[in-house]
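Ligand: glutamine. Inputs:
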Amino acid sequence: MKVGVLALQGAFIEHIKALRELGAEAVEVRLPEHLDGLDALIIPGGESTTIGKLAVTYGLIEPLREFAQSKPTWGTCAGMIFLAKDIGIDRQPILGVMDITVNRNAFGRQIDSFEADLPIKGLEGGDFHTIFIRAPIATAVGEGVEVLGALDDGRVIAARQGHLLATAFHPELTADRRVHQLFLRLAEDRP
Ligand code: GLN
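Predicted complex:
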């Protein structure tokens, strides 16, 4: 399994480390040709406006969109924003491939970063320690989207739509590799 990690900005090194720990081949993606031959892709957390601007500069928007339309792609935090169809802002470049409505910086200034133990569907062995850093939230999901995790108030923090996975939190910043395992399983299931 060869997995790319978009390496324009943000927490890409941590994803690469997690993938290698699990025995996957992990490569940094900075240019369109780096997508060639990849089985799957992770779009990391960081700052979605910066990732978007750099993706435009390097001619990556359309190649990334095409990749994510057909191949397993997982967005964490800013990556979730980047995958979403609707973020309520027109000017910010996004891929717009996943049928979720996302609210950026959903937790405002007061508790813009926090940690919590939450159940995530598809993970065995109990709750996952979720780390939220100026995190987004999905306020609505389309029909084909399965909710994998939500806060007590029902707001969605993890979702899957076929070969697409989105998490509002940062699994790569913990030592727990279960969400990475889940993504690799999802990617392996694809023909
Ligand atoms: N607040 C950031 C954004 O809007 C996301 C933060 C993160 O990825 N940790 O892009």
